[in-house]
Amino acid sequence: MLHRYFQAMGLERDTDLWQKERVDLLNIVEAATGARVSLDKLAHANLNEGKTGHGAEAIEFYRRGEMEKLKAYCTSDVRLTKELYDIYIKEGALFVPE
After folding, report:
1. What is the pTM of this model?
2. How far apart are CA 70 and CA 16, in angstroms?
């Protein structure tokens, strides 16, 4: 089912993501399931690990000038998202928890 939505978003398995202006994996999952699923839940279900923090913490890191903490938080989110996308590319599906 997810594959149909990836296709609708112009994302075939051989898509060069660098040619896309923006790809939001969570929006694609929501379109496919009709429900909003957090990155943390999706990562736990497919990678057996979750996010390192919450978005509100990122704002506080920025306000306090803690750029290394902000960088680590954002890098972790990007890594999780990429690993989820890689699973989709390899397996053709993601497990989406309820």
Report:
1. 0.77
2. 28
